[in-house]
Amino acid sequence: MKHLAMVVAACLAFASASVGQQTSDNLPASKEDVQKYLDLMHSRDTMTKMWEAMSKQIRQMTHEEYLKHKDKLPSDFEVQENRKLDEMIKAMPFEELEQAVVPVYQKHLTKADVDALIAFYSSPTGQKLITEMPAIVAESMQAAYPIMKKRMNAMIEHMQQEIAQRTKDSKPTTNQD
Known about the structure:
Blueprint: H1 2-20, H2 31-40, H3 43-69, H4 77-91, H5 94-108, H6 111-122, H7 124-170
């Protein structure tokens, strides 16, 4: 009986010790691991290029809105809006944004995951993807824009109709007895 109790105790001790250990596959990614990955990805440069691509779409939308409503807008509307957009991009805290995402990567990726990403993006194919990603995103946005615009216009029209109906329904009725 003593022998059985010792075997059970030893098994429990080994089991609890192994549960407490993390394998290298599930170690959390360190800040340094994530920063190495972000540096390899040229994340600040990529963010800048993506913002520039988005700003082109925003400028196009601003121009279209101006053309639709130019009789109600000041003649320098587009110039003012483009200046605001330029200032916003110039003031964008890319380094701060990059640091804000480090904990997000740490939450969702293990050290092994980040190491695998670093290995991939260090390869010629990974480097090509990094180089081409801003163009891919810009062209994807351009391709999606007509679809999004159509949907957004339909949604706006529907919302305007709904607001008009609610306004009509909520008007107090007057009793003239």
